[in-house]
Structures are given as C-alpha cells and as structure tokens.
Fold each of these.
Amino acid sequence: MNNPVIESMLQRKSIRKYEDRMPSDEVIETIVRAGQQAPFAAQVYSILLSRKKKHVFGAPLLFTICVDYHKMKLIMGKRDWSMVTNDLSLLIFGIQDAAMMAENMVIAAESLGLGSVYLGNAPYVADKIAAEYNLPLKVFPLVQLAMGYPAEDAPPRLRYPMDFTLFEDEYPELTDEMIEEAMAMMDQGYMGQDYYKKNNYMIPLKNGRKETFTFDDYGWTEHISRKWGQWFPSVRDLLVQLEKRGFHITSDLDEKE
Amino acid sequence: MNNPVIESMLQRKSIRKYEDRMPSDEVIETIVRAGQQAPFAAQVYSILLSRKKKHVFGAPLLFTICVDYHKMKLIMGKRDWSMVTNDLSLLIFGIQDAAMMAENMVIAAESLGLGSVYLGNAPYVADKIAAEYNLPLKVFPLVQLAMGYPAEDAPPRLRYPMDFTLFEDEYPELTDEMIEEAMAMMDQGYMGQDYYKKNNYMIPLKNGRKETFTFDDYGWTEHISRKWGQWFPSVRDLLVQLEKRGFHITSDLDEKE
C-alpha cells in the first residue's frame, strides 16, 4: 500500500551536504504555504528565513521556526481580550503547532526535490537568535531547519519496530527481547550505513569517562544515550531563555543547579 | 507549482463526522509507518490505539500520541547510562518528535482517503488516560487524533496571509493594517463556511461577561481570543499532571493559583 505522498515520507532523510543552488521564491513560497496548511491549535508560530549567506552544511536556506504568541496578543488586543492562559500551556500548544507546520514544510520540500535537516539547539541560544532577528517578547525560537538541494544521497534510516511504537488498548510490559530487538534494529541501521563514521562524530564523554568505542561499535543507542545521559542536566539555562522571551514557567529559577 | 504530496497537504481539513467503516490493519499500519519515518530528535514517542468502540464524532480510530521517555530509559539502562537531562528539555524535544510523527500520520491518512481531527485536551486529563492505558512513568499523553473515513466534506480553511507568517531577516513591526488583514482573512474564511454555526458552538463567556455575538459575527479571532483569554489561567493542574507522569518541571507547585 503506497502512493507518492507516503513514498515521500518514507524516503525522507536528513541532508548534511547541499548544492550551491538557491531555490526559487516560488519553491520557497510553495513549501511555506504547505506548512501553513498544517492543522493547528491556534496558528501560534512564525517562520524566520535567512538566505543572505550559506548556512550550516552549505544550505542556502535557514528557517527558524518560532512559537509566536506576540501575534496572538495583538489580535486579542483588537478584540478587547487579554491573554490569561499560563505560559507552560501556551508552550505545549505552540510547540505542537510549530512542529506540525515545520513537518509539512519538510515533506513538501522533499516532494520538490529539496532536502532538509533540523537543528535542535535554538531554545538554548534563543537570546542570540532573538537579537539577530529582533524578536518581540512572546516569540520563542523552537527549532531551525536548514534546507536546499541535496548534494548527497543516502537511504532512509531505520526506525524502531512497529511493535515497540504502536500499542493497542494497553501499554505493554516491554520485555528484554523487545528492547534488545529495537536497539539492534536502530544500531545495525545506523552502523550499516556508516552513519557516524561518515560524519566522523561521536559524542565526547564527560566526567572522566574513558572512550572505549570505535566507529565499529558506536551505534544510535550509544549516541542517543550519551545525549540524555550528559546534556542539559540543569533546567536553569532553558528557564532563563524562556524568561527572556517572555515565557514565565516557574519562580524557582534560582534554586535549580 | 504543485504535486500530489503538496495537494494532499493543501486539501487537509479536520473531519468531525465519520463513516461507520473500520480502516483495515494494512491502512493503519501504513499510516503509522509513515508517522514513524518522520525526523526525530530521539524517537521519544509512543502511539496508543483504541478501536474497541466508536470515538468522538463517530471515529472508528483513536490514537493517543504520547511523549515517551520510558523506552529511552530502558535502552539507556541496557547501555549503562542514566538519564540526567532536565525534564523541561525532555518535554520540548519530545513534543516536537511526537507532533512531527503525528503530522506525518495525518498527511498519510489524507492521502489514503481518511480524515482526522486533533483533540488537544490530553495533557489536562493525562491521569485518566494513564490509568486507561496503564502508562508507565515518563510517558505523557500529548494529543489525541481521531481518524476514519470522512462522512462530511468541506473546503480547507484559510490561514494567515504569508506576510503575517514568513519573515525574512528580521521580525517586522506588525502594523494595524497587517493585523486587521490577517484577522479579516481568518474570520471571513471561517464565517464564509458557517464553521461555528454548523458546529453550533461558541465558547461560553465567563466572569459575568455578557454574550453579544451571534453566528453572523462570531469568527475565528473571537473564538481563539476566548480560549487564551479564559482557559487554563493556572499552570497548577498541568504541573500536577506532569508530576504524576514523572516529569518534574518546578518545585513551586503550591504557590501557583
């Protein structure tokens, strides 16, 4: 069971090398328009575009996808309403709106022969992005999307087995066998493509941990474990970034390490 | 500039009336498989499916899309890692992963002749959903997606003008003219379809505010203003739901109203 729409999704992979060719205005607008038509809670996003220079991986386009309640506040003001919803709820809806919109852009781009890659670091450098684009309060840079015509090709990468993802009626107890099967599928998928070897990248170990891996046994599950096992232990930096953008999540900023 | 992929996105609209016809296992698996192939930070989601009964709007399928770090913890355990990343960061990445996956499901479903509608209330009833599906800690129900074969048809609904959404190099000052144009486009789009009239729904006014609208002037901007102007003023309920699911965002739970 297949069609061009599903094929476009199944073929999609991140692109980390781009041609030196600028997509036309029409291509860009078609992609953004497809993004806009995504379902929404409240259309609470904006898209910042930069094409003044080459971006990471040589991409001609860099989109910065923002959660945007500034526009909503302006609209509510015109209707004599003020925003009362708490900022964490606003974020949860806003992140969904922005992510669904961005995913439509990704698939639309793929269908037009373009490739893309998500860059997840924006929330942690929100202040720099805000300064660069002169963002008003209540606009929070969520994720960046580099895009252009691919100068590399690779097969799509594997995902977890479906029985590790889709659960009917009840969340099952995940057996050792299921966990190990899911891990093997991901690791063999990435290592079979020499994914980390080609990118020449292993996440460095911190706290005196000694490296024992080589590109022959460093797979996706080790990679992802090193992220969540080492990165962003403190919530403080993120809370500070959110506060600077006008999203107040908690009063205990100072207590956190 | 168009193709079947982009057409599928541009034609998509929420469906609130479904045929009494169960999609085949093959259709369901194709949709979920397309969802899984979405880009990810860490594949930190799970999909709960219920097809034991008819769901809201008569939909035969109800998917509950969860942010899921339980699986990640199990995998990290097998690799001798423990999770150290703060829970707010986990949520921000997890919501994106889950939303991108769900959006692929929506577009794949559309391409196979199915319709869908998002239900955004899951985070506020997370405890009930957790009990129903026996969710382990670190699994948070983010959003639900009802799906089936449509028993209604409507044109897609308008979105903001592109110049209210896509900003190049700098976030512009939004003039009254731009704001009013965006509002008019949305309001005329919804009212032109008798959207709220057909659904026979206006958001009730609280705090003694007197209703002055009819379906002739109640448009999208009034509707959305009533949400953010009245709903979820306190973050407390949401924080409690997150805590119950094992996501600790803040220690100032008791201070919030």
Note: The first strand of chain B starts at residue 45 and ends at 50.
Amino acid sequence: MYNNGSIADVETDDIESEVGESIYSRPLLIKRSNITSQIAIVGANVCSVESLDYEIPENDLVNEDLRLRRKIQVFQYVLLKWVFALIIGLSTGLVGIFSNIAVENIAGFKLLLTREFMQKHEYYKAFIVYAGCNLGLAASAAALCAFIAPSAAGSGIPEVKAYLNGVDAYSILAPSTLFVKIFGSICGVAAGFVVGKEGPMVHTGSCIASLLGQGGSRKYGLTWRWLRYFKNDRDRRDLITCGAAAGVAAAFRAPVGGVLFALEEAASWWRSALLWRTFFTTAVVAIVLRGFIEFCSSGNCGLFGEGGLIMYDISAAKVVYSAPDILAVILLGVIGGLLGSLYNYLVDKVLRTYSIINERGAAVKIVLVITISLLTSICSYGLPWLAKCIPCPDQVSTSCPNTDVSGNYKSFQCPPGHYNDLASLFLNTNDDAIRNLLSTNTAKEFHISSLLIFFGAVYFLGIITYGIAIPSGLFIPVILAGSCYGRLIGRLFEPVSKLDVGLFSLLGAASFLGGTMRMTVSLCVILLELTNDLLVLPLVMLVLLISKTMGDMFNKGVYDQIVKLKGLPYMEAHPEHYMKNLVARDVVTGPLITFCGVEKVGNIVLALRCTGHNGFPVVDEPPFSDAPELCGLVLRSHLLVLLKGKIFSRDRVLARNKILHKIVELDFAKGKGLKVEDLDIKEEEMDMYVDLHPIANTSPYAVVETMSLAKAAILFRELGLRHMFVIPKSQGRPPVVGILTRHDFMPEHILGLYPHIRYRK
Amino acid sequence: MYNNGSIADVETDDIESEVGESIYSRPLLIKRSNITSQIAIVGANVCSVESLDYEIPENDLVNEDLRLRRKIQVFQYVLLKWVFALIIGLSTGLVGIFSNIAVENIAGFKLLLTREFMQKHEYYKAFIVYAGCNLGLAASAAALCAFIAPSAAGSGIPEVKAYLNGVDAYSILAPSTLFVKIFGSICGVAAGFVVGKEGPMVHTGSCIASLLGQGGSRKYGLTWRWLRYFKNDRDRRDLITCGAAAGVAAAFRAPVGGVLFALEEAASWWRSALLWRTFFTTAVVAIVLRGFIEFCSSGNCGLFGEGGLIMYDISAAKVVYSAPDILAVILLGVIGGLLGSLYNYLVDKVLRTYSIINERGAAVKIVLVITISLLTSICSYGLPWLAKCIPCPDQVSTSCPNTDVSGNYKSFQCPPGHYNDLASLFLNTNDDAIRNLLSTNTAKEFHISSLLIFFGAVYFLGIITYGIAIPSGLFIPVILAGSCYGRLIGRLFEPVSKLDVGLFSLLGAASFLGGTMRMTVSLCVILLELTNDLLVLPLVMLVLLISKTMGDMFNKGVYDQIVKLKGLPYMEAHPEHYMKNLVARDVVTGPLITFCGVEKVGNIVLALRCTGHNGFPVVDEPPFSDAPELCGLVLRSHLLVLLKGKIFSRDRVLARNKILHKIVELDFAKGKGLKVEDLDIKEEEMDMYVDLHPIANTSPYAVVETMSLAKAAILFRELGLRHMFVIPKSQGRPPVVGILTRHDFMPEHILGLYPHIRYRK
C-alpha cells in the first residue's frame, strides 16, 4: 500500500478519482514537496490524492440539473437513503460472517493437520506442514495485494478517516480493493500472522458503501441505473460513514460501539440525522450476525465453533475492588499507555523502512511477506518448546489436555495429563488466544515466564507485521499484546489484589488500546459489548483515561500517525497554534488564474491544460458590471462538461437559456470522470466565447485577507470546504486575492513559507 | 415559567444576564415583535434573552488579559476541566440520590397513611388525607416556583437546549432556579402529579455546571476565587453539556445514554474532546449511584426500597419473535407515533392557554396548580372504584394482596384474597406504576378495561399537567402512557403473538417516546440501560424508527416545539428552504452604527445608551488608513470596561501601550456584569478620544452581501457566531453593509420582511 499511486498508475484508476488534485499545488509545488518529502517520505504520492466537494454549489443551473437527473421526489430520496443503509448493513454483515467462517475453517484445518503430526511425534514434519500452510496463505494474500490492489494493504482505517475528512486517496474505495481486502484478509489471518480482521472489516464496509454510492463500478461493467442517485460527494460521505460503523459492528458484534467509533474516530463532520441512520445500519449488522450464530450453533459451519466471532465472557469474575486494586489498575494504565505510545513509535519507524522496501516492486513485496511469515511460524512453533509441561489442574470444566481445535490446555509435545501453556496461546487463532487470556478463574493456568515470552513475541511480531503487503488490522495485535500484559500484571499483583487475572487481562487490553488508538468512548463501549458486563465500566474508563493521557504526552494516535505518514492532507479539528500569528494573505502563493464572466474558449482550455486547479474564480468586468466584481467559482469538472457540450457563441454574450435547454444532455454530475484530453475542440472554436455565469457557484465562502489564519482554518474545516476565496481588505484592487485549498493549511506548506516559525508537535 | 422575564424583572436578574440582547432588535423591533407575537404568544419576552459569545475574539489585548487573569498554565487549565467534570458528576449524582430518597419517603408516607384509613374502611377520610397531602405538596411546589424562581417551572430541557445553541434565557441557570428545581421537583413528584423528575434532573445538572463555571453566585455571596477560571461562554457551554449528560445519567442510571442524549438532543456543537469529558462525568454519576444503591439496599434509606431509581428488569421474558409479532410491533409503532404527535399538539395548545392564565400573577399560578392537583387526586382515587376486584392468582412470587408501599396487587377496597388492578397503577408512585406495567409473565394481571381507563387518564393528565408552575419532566408521563398503551396492544394481540406483554409494554413506551421526543439513538440506549437486555434492541429500534417517522410527518419534537413557543431564537441545523432564494443583504435592516478607530467618548456613550447592540463595527479612516477600512468588531462589554477604565486622550492618537499597561486593572472578563448606567463619565471627558483598536476583534467572520442567506446561515450556525459582518460586493462603498445576528435568521424576522414568501412547515 505504501508505494502505490505513482503517476504511471493513474490509467488503471477507477472512474471516481481520475481528476487528481495532482498539480493543483501551483508554482509552489517544488518547495512544498521538498518539505513534504522530509515529513512524508512514504511513497504515497501527492498525485494520487483528490479533495472532495462537500459543499453543494449554490447555482440555479447545477441544481436544476441535479433535480432533473434525480427524477425522484424528496420522499423517495430519503427512503432510498434508508434502503442503502439497509443494504450496507446486510452486505457488511454477510461479509463478516463469510470471512469468519472462512478463517475458522482454514486455520482450523491447518491446526488439525499440524496436531496430527505432533501426535505421531513427527515434530519436524509438523513444523513443515504448519509453516508451509502459513507460507502458502501468506503468499496468496501478498500476491492479491501486490498485483491486484496495492491499496488494500494495511488497516484501511486511516484512509477511510482521511476520506471522511475530504481526501480521496488513490483507488482506496475501488471494487478491486474491496475484493482483495476480503480475500487477502482471510488468507492473512488464517496464515497465523499477528494481524486482525477488524480494521479490514471497517475498510470493507466503507468500500461496499462507496460502491453503492457510485452505483457500482463502470470499470467492471457492474453498474445499476437505480443505484446512481448519490452522485455527490456529500451523500457518498454519509454512506461511507454508515459503512465504517457497520464494519466495526460486524467485527466486534458491537452495534452501539460501531456508531460511536464512526462518530469519534472516523467522521470529521457529524449530523444528527446521520447518527440515526448509522445506528440503523449497525443494528441490521447485529441482526444478521445473530441469525448466523444461531444457524452455526447447530454445527452447520464446519470448524466454526464458539470461536470466530469474538465475544468474551468475563461475567464469572466478581467485580469487587478496593484501594490496592485501584492502585494496581492505575499502574497498569500508566505502563500500558507508555508501551502503547512506544508501539506507535516503532510502527512508524517500521512503516518508513517497509515503504522504501515495498517501492521496489511487487516481487519484493511478496518476498517481505514470506520472510515475516517464516519468522512468525518459527516463533509460534519454536517458542512453545521453551515452556515446561504443566500437570493438568484437577477441577476444570474443559478437558485437559484439550483435543479441540481451539481452547485452552493444548497438549503439544507434553505427555498425557499435562499441557503446554505457551502452545495454548501460540498454536491457536488470535481470537482464541485472546479468549484464553481473558478467561476467568484460571489464575494459575499460564506461567509468568510463558506470559513474558508470549508478550515479547506478540509485541514484536505485531510491530513488524503491520506495513507488509497484506490487509492487516491493528486491533487484534494490540488487544493480544495488551491482554497478555494485563494478565502478567495481574499475576504480579496477585498477592495484594482481589481482582481476577481475567479482569486484569481485559484492563490490560484496554490500556494498550487507549495507548495506541487514543479512542475512548467508542473503545469503552466496544469492550462493554464484547464482554457484556456493565460492572467493569468504571475500571475500563479509568484505565483508558490514564493510558490515553500518557500516550498523548509522547505522540499521536496510530491512525493519525499513519495518515500523516502517507502524506494525506488531513485537516485537523484545531488549527495549529502558530496560525494565530498569520493571516489568510500570508499563505496565498503563486499567480491566480481568473476567468471573465464570458470567457474565450481558448483561455479556458489553456488554463485547464497548464494547471491542475480544480476551482477558478470568475470575475465580471465591463460591460457586464460597472467595475471588476467577483461573480463566483467554477469547478474544473463543470467547465469540462460545458466545453464538451460546445455551447459557444461568436460574440461576448450571455447564454443562460441556451445552456438551460441542453441541461439534461450535459449531465454535470458526470464531470468528475472527464479529463482535458477528452475534449475535442477545433481551432476555430478556440476563439469563440462561452458563458460561465450559469455554472458559477455564486455564493463561495470567502475571508478577508487580514483574517487570522487560525480562524480561516476553522471556517474551512467546519464547513467542509474545498476552495475558499481570499478577498482584499482595501479598495481599488482586483476582487480576489487568491484561493485557499486544504493544502494551504498544511503545516508543511506553511512551514515551507515561514521556516522561522517554530513547529511544536 | 411562561410569564417570567417581563422588563420589570430585569432588576432581579443574575449577574450573567444583565446586558440583554433586548433592544438589539434595531428599528425593526416593532415589526418583528408583531409577527413574533403571532407565533410566540407565550409571555417569554424577547427582552429576557441574550445571545452567547462562543467565538473567542482574536485580539492581542483581550487574549493577554485572559492569560494574565487566568494565571495558570495550560496543563492546569486542562486538569481543572477534568476536576470540574468530576465535581459536576459527583454533585449531580448526589442530588439525584437526595431527590430519589426524598420522593420515595414523602410519597411512601402519604400512601401508607392513605392505606391505613382504607384498611379501616374510612374511605372518605382516606381521600381527604390523600388529596390533602397532594394539595399541600403541590401548593409548596407552586409557591416555590411562583415566588422564588419562575424559570424553574417545566422541564428545563428546552431551555438547556437553547442555551447550548447560544441563547441565554432569563435566569435559567441561576442559583435560585437550581434550588427551586430540586425542591419543587421533589414536592411535585411526591404530590402524585403525572410528572417526572428526569427533565428537572437534566436542568439541575446544567445549573450545577453553570454555577461552577461562573464560580458561584455573586448575588448570594457564594463566590470562590479558585472556581473563576471559566469566564468565557465557550468553556461554560462545555461544562453545561457535561451537566446535561450527568442529569440524564443520574435520572436513568444510564451513563452511555446520558452522553448520547447530550450529543443528540442537547448540544448544538460537539467536539471529540467533549465526548470523553462528558463520558467521564456520567461515569462518575454511575459510580455514585451504585455506591448509594449498595448503601440503601441494607435499609438505611427509610422507605426507599427497590423502587426509586428506575431500573426495569424484563430479562425474564424470552425474546423470540416471528412474522406476526413483527407486524404487531409495526402497528404498535405506527399508532404510537400518531398518539405521540397528537400529544405534542395538545401539549402545545394547553401551554398556550396556560401561559395566558399564568401571566396574571403568582396567585393565579398557584390556584391553577391546586386545581390540577385536585383533579389528579380525584382521578387517582376515584377511578380505581370502577375496577372490579380480581381474585389473586395462585402462583405469584410477591404476596397478594400486597402490603408493601410499592408493588403490584394493591388491595384497595377489595376483600382479602383479591386485588384492585387499577389501584396498583394509580395509587403508587409513577416509577412503581411503570415497573408494574413492564412486569413480565403477568399477562392477565391487568384487565383490558383497567388499562384503557388508566391510559386515558394518564394521557389526559400528562397533557394538562405540563405547563403549570411546578418543575415537571415529560419523560415519565410519556413512558407511563406509552407502556400502558403497549400493554393494551399486547393484550389485544395475545392470541397471535408470542411476545410477553411486558415486552409489548416496553415497546409501547419506546413508541411514545419516539413519537413525542423524536430522539432515537439516545432513547434506544437509555431503554437498553434501563432494561439491561441487549436482545430487545432490534425491536426497540424498529419501533422508534417507525414512531419517529410517523411523528415527523405531523409536527416537531416536543422540546423543539416548546423552544419555539417560548420565542427563543434557536438556530436550526438546516437553513429554511426559502433562504436559498435570499441573499445576506436582504435581511440587513435599520441604520448601522459604526465607530472610528479612535472615537469620541461621547459618541460611544450615546450609542451604548440609545441602542441595545452588543457589537459595533470599527472602521479606520484617514489618517489611520488611506481609505475607510474595516478594522474589526468591538463588543459592548469590552467597550464598557474600557470606558470605565477612562484611558482617554485629548487628541486623536493611538493608545495601545497605555491600555496594555492597565490591562490587569481593567479585567475585560467582568464586562458582562456592567451596564451603561454604571459609567460615571464627566461632561469634559465626553469630548475626549478613546482608542478602540486594542479591543477590536480584528478577525470577525464576514460574508459578501450577495452570499446566499442559506449559506450565511450555515456559516453562522456551524461556527457558533454571535455577530457576522456583511461586506459590500462592489467598490467605493463603506466597508460594512450591516451586521447579522441570530435574530436576523429567524423565520419570523425574514417573513416579516418578505410576507409573500410561503412558509412551509
């Protein structure tokens, strides 16, 4: 994922991301990218990024066009939104079920096969089978990723987050990405990597929503007419928010947690109406999952047993705590926060290294994946040999040693009546390992030394696995390491604390999650829905609060970090402190290209060819007004449609009615798919005129040039703008001083212009 | 509450609301209030409303002043916010406990006394005792409300909602209001009215937060120096959001529901940081309540038994449903939505009538309360006589007839071994009645005729009770009527549906809540936390979805309706449709008063005296600039502080340094407490000059006059502004065309200017 999107890739681009913000960067490009390259050395090229138009243009003609094209009443439109939410919920739920069944069956088969050889004491053969299966699965995942959809690598949550902020990264929501995300994730998780399928589920949900929103994929010939009602970025954004929430709901069976995740972490803007629709989507997911579990409980799903869909029951542990427990929990939170932020730091370093490696091509990517897979296999198979065989406890409900695919008390190399505690953690799916760690009333089941070994291995493997070319979620590695760490602390505090080690384990997971992801309420609710126990809520909150605070002292949350690393121009909710000392005028750079109200075709074509700007100011001049006057903003996409329609005139005259007549034919909504090269304008037409008034957005947001940059940034961010005019303060000057886009608010740009400004992190 | 805030009241106003937006309304006042009076005939005078400054001025001197005054570091400031959240949580939780114990004990004592006479068959005496207790309690509540704090009447949620939208209604968060809200609510609920303590709890939480935010009350001599750090409206808003969430959490024991309530219903703006702090507050409340319940469970709280803090356990009912059940539930939702919107309609009519009655004075208010109290007593005591005595069922876990204060199977007039089902509903606290209605596996306990009578009585009493001069929540009446209606439907569908009638009852309550309040996610989560059963979630969501949709077809949610009725200038999230056809210039009215950068003291004093404007544009003119140029916006409060400081000069010169020197002395944060009358400016000083540059906000938000009004409204709303400049499009005109405030966006104002615009509801 870290070396996609070079210019050469543009031709394979999906319909929606062809017109790049690419060269938008004006003459400043060189300067800016110098700085960018220092900060975002990862190959995510600026060319692959496009800003989204969340602002609906205020313009009679465009509105009329949308209205005609939509051909449905407001009621139907609203109904359709709900239908879409329903479809998103259903399909995300089904994908969640499918990938759960697939993972459990593939991994289960692999583990069964390994165990057979183990039981025959053919340990080398067992390793070869185990490592071979892992390798095969890993290679398939890597091949899918490297050749079909490089954007499907990684978690996907940072990209979805950036999309909802208004940045469309290269083919991040394309159908190929969806395909690879689903199957790559299944292979990757089944291959025994320390990765989860939760992040990919969020990305999957968003992809499904995006596909629905754009009415299928034109590239693959999968388009449905009746789906094409949401052609604007704003409606698409809402759908994708629903999709992200559905993904979390499907991953954790947490409908309320999903909504809160979308609200707290994913979305940059939120409306009350969206809250409800999102909740509806996640509820549909919850219902689908429930039906599926009932279906599978009668043994219809192969090896899919009680594992799979994670749901940890810690209700057996009595939640009673006193002062020393609270102290232990506080310590747990502090160390968890520190380890979490260290995790972020190391992931960042590893990602930077991998991005350089991955840039060398698909083959190198696959080799890297195979290397990590081998390393993982060696760890999982080799480390359990370090553990001593432990005699089975007398009174346990499950059999010991266990003969199931999942479960505690794995026998491994041990004699009958004994079990290997490390093998119960390593030679299991990640979900089952977490379940074992969170199990209550089993304080002595794992040795402290085993826990230490497992913690070290998982912490290390989690860090080096993220960033290789497979779909890889971050939730599970963090929960895995965190719950192991929590159990470790629990064992250490056993003499003084009355809390169950299973509970400590949960709190450890919470502290790690808080330390890396820095979400709070949504994590709290997700953990609540996972464990179904309201009584631990106060402790979980305490731990999350502490670990998040600790982590925030050192670095940003892992998703924010990845967004930054990828060079995506993410608009933060709060302006940087130094922006208070600058004014809007200070960051305006480069010459401004403006059009007249009725402009020569040749000028427009030239401007479209020579710049990558997506918005141009239109200025009325005599005879259309007394003095130069700002008329509005035209978008590149609308200009292209207008030029393609060829409504030109020999003289400089208004042509509103002419355009209004051809409005259905023109189809402004399609503008995003057009390029300058698609235009076929003859030489004599270049000297003709075209009236831009009908397509100009007559109410663009603008700030006075002396407006503090911080306040301009707040305006830009809160209203979800793509272009913002800067207008002069004093009179007698041209009516527009410049245009600000999201790039102009990026620290890299501002610090490039004013290197003396001290950049506090 | 509906006749407070006449001009005469201003003198008793609390420190924070002295400078009214009152006369701000410019010459247009007469015109506007004509229209307003048609729409908002309720006595809530426009004079009692003040807009809040959520925008932090960008201005060196004011910032410097705040910094010096604050005298604490950023870290301490952040820490303090958390400490405040803790205090809000603690105190709201404690108030919740106190009012619960008080209500349960008072009401319990009353019911015990009545029962004693009943058992002696002295039915008339029993009625006199019962009605007398009710009357006394009602009269005390009414007296508190009428004489001490008229603002404490009603639910309080609409006012809190308006405050968080930027409108400070008259003394709505004053200490007297808090006092009356707590004690009035206890008396009102104990008096057997069909009212709840949930809405008042939200208001109470907000009042506590507001008091903390302004550092106590100056009027009552309760100020603490160390509390006075949050002197700006923005921080206060955040605290009050926490307070509102804490209120819901305390009322329903629903920490997550509280957060979502604040998010969905109360707050108009939301930040991620706030989410976490709000959650912390509600968690503190939850912990406090939990400790209290453990304390009370050993019988330390008098008559406070398992009643009081509502928590309904329906987990005994198995949630299995098939197609006919779903149909029944859909029907339930449809009818519930219709009845809910009818409820809103009737409440609106009754409120309008009451407001006319209440305007006649405190005595009339009390008479009205007494009348309603008598009516309620007659209903609760009289109607059970219509019910037939039912023989006790054979196998029940509780005793029958019941001898407890609360509980099912009340004996009333029945012979031993029989019970009166209507008495179990009427002669109980509202909480216990709801618990009886929601009880599971008791399908035959209530006769259909009894349910019909109770439903009719509660629906009717709920409508006529809201609006009288006592603190009265709307949640409980709606839940009461809804759960009765749900049980009724459940009984009717008994032959075809497998769902328990207790479950139907819950769904009925949900449908009524959805139909009146129109909240969705927060209600869903509150009901979830109340019943502690995740399995009913899909059904509850379905019902809420249907009933909200049905209700929205007819009218607005009840809180929005009350906000409108009170004439509070609430900014809606979405601009009205007709605003798209207007531009900013169209709604600018009246002459504009501007100041020069260095202005004559006399002019300023005159302007302050003659207008009620709270913001004035400052325009630089030669020699300070080449041409007239917009310098910024000065606030009335800052002007008053500057004039009081008397930093005048004989000549027209800049005085930045002079003001900077005296900055600590001036204390701009105190400006809100000042009035023009407080100034003591001598005749000769009137001709001197004062430099306004240092106090002008140099980065006011502005729109070009041709900006569509809809977009201007979005800007105004999203950024939480109080003043917005309208600047000219063409050159050669004064640099400011006008100022827009929230009043200019109100439909009443716009429709007053353009009566031909059709106002679609």
Note: The CA atoms of residues 193 and 376 of chain B lie 7 Å apart.
